[in-house]
Amino acid sequence: MKVTQKIVLAAPARTPFAQIGKALAQYPGHHLGKIVGEEVMKRSGLKPTDIDGVIVGEGFANAPNSARVIANLMNLPLEIPCLTVANNCVSGLEAVAEASRRIMLGEGEVFLVIGEESQTSMPFVVKNARLNKKTNSLDSLVKLLPNDLPEGVELRDTLEDGLGDGETSYGMQVTAEILAQNYALPRETQDKVAYESFKRAFEATQEGRYKPYIMEVKDDEGNPLQADEAVLLREGLVKNPTRMGRAMLMFDNPAMKFDAWKEKYGKDLKKSHGPTVSIFNASPRSDGAAGIIVASEAAAKRLGLKAEALVAGFKMKGVAPNLMGLGQAEATLGLLEEVGEKVENIDVIEIHEAFAATAVAALEEIKIRTGFDWEKNFDAKKINPNGGSIAIGHPFGATGVRLLHNAIMDFHENKDAKKVLVTACAHGGIAGSMIVERP
Predict the structure, then answer these.
(1) I need a surface site. Which of 149, 190, 330, 435 has the fewest CB within 10 A?
(2) Which of 165, 238, 159 is closest to 196 using CA atoms?
(3) CB 35 within 8 A of CB 395
(4) In this model, does residue 131 exceed pLDDT 90?
(5) Measured between alpha carbons, how far is 393 from 16 in angstroms, rounded to an integer?
(6) CB 241 within 8 A of CB 157
(7) 8-state DSSP, 75
(8) pLDDT score for 359
């Protein structure tokens, strides 16, 4: 929908994103949200009584209505409404959209919006199992348990279940390979996009470009984490790009050969050219949180908030679950039509890289339908100029807000940029797109 009034984004702050089971493993998702919420409030200069509501994007619940739990932990006014939106990987973007809707409806003027996720906290239906090396995989856990469970009783990994619902969609890595096959995307193209994500994110981190947006968080040993953990761990890969081509393929390895994969998922394949999706051209499993203030222009001026960006429009749209990544193209094209804009007039695109295959397939679909030369724009660093989810990490609920942080970075780094498009896909085939403008 086209936003018909000026809605301000202000005071962006986030934790570093950490690898699953590592630096931020001690924090449940709503505690990460609390840490970020407090930092956003500090940076904004707002008082608790200035907040009209809290909206939290979270893929998989760590608490009953995490938004309310976070608000109570922060000692925000008890009377304010608090809402948690669960729209898988697009939850953070949906939370910002929901705050914008409420402002337009007159249900409030200032909202604290947080996207958060602790994949470490997602149980094997056995709490804290991932925190112990003896139980941090389903196989290792099963070895410690009796092997005579009654028929129909089974242990489940909620993270794996969350990445593919088992009834209407496959695991997300499968949907990525389906798109890679159907759009004839070579592994080399995916590896190029992934490598650039690593390189750009690493360089931006080393040069301090992310520093204004990332708060310091202490790990369980009290050591400060000041940058995205996955980015720091990939320095060797950035310096030796030949490692990209040696990464293990997800669907051509001892566990599954590609011919078996094609046979299993053949009904969704239009064509095939060989396996492409690897552990290096996919986003890592992650923990983290990101926050922002969403406010009406009048309230922002009254409260002295610095407008970092304006919400111009947003749209959620779905596609077939097993073609999940294409939702980014559909939501983007639908949004552009609704706001009367052309993709050529967008200065920068921040696209979620669940996998290189899902991002590239969406860009290919946009190219097919509009002629948009995404390769040229990518090489010119007009697409994910500071890296993306493959390098930074992907805590499900946090990614949508993190993408908006990157859009704000784009305005600061590129003085000619007037409009940035943010888009993300999500499990189940849902996707969201948002256009933000320079204030």
Answers:
(1) 149
(2) 238
(3) no
(4) no
(5) 9
(6) no
(7) T
(8) 98
User: What sign has the CA pseudo-torsion 48, 49, 50, 51?
Assistant: positive
pLDDT per position as a tens digit, 272-314? 999 999 999 999 999 999 999 999 999 999 999 999 999 999 9
- Six token digits for residue 340: 């009367």
* CA atoms of 148 and 154, how far apart (whole Å): 10
CA 156-392-85 angle, 5° bins: 55
Could you tell me which residues are beta bridge partners of residue 290? 14, 115
Extract the tokens encoding 374: 């995404």
Q: How far apart are the C-alpha atoms of 166 and 156, rounded to whole Å?
A: 12
The answer to whether residues 143 and 403 touch, using CB atoms and an 8 Å cutoff, is no
Structure tokens at 183: 């759009």
Question: How, if at all, do strands 18-19 and 110-118 pair?
Answer: unpaired
What DSSP element (H or E) covers 42? helix 29-44
Strand 110-118 relative to strand 53-57, pairing: parallel
Is the model's pLDDT at 126 over the cut of 80? Answer: no
Q: Characterize the bridge pairing of strands 419-425 and 53-57.
A: unpaired
pTM score > 0.85 for this model? yes
Rounded distance, CA 40 to CA 14, Å? 8
User: What's the start-to-end Cα distance of the chain, in Å?
Assistant: 19
Q: How confident is the model over 89-99, as a mean pLDDT?
A: 98
Closest of 8, 26, 3 to residue 128, by C-alpha: 26
Residues in contact with 204: Cβ distance below 8 Å, sequence separation at least 6, in sequence order: 210, 386, 387
Residues 6+ apart with CB under 8 A from 203: none
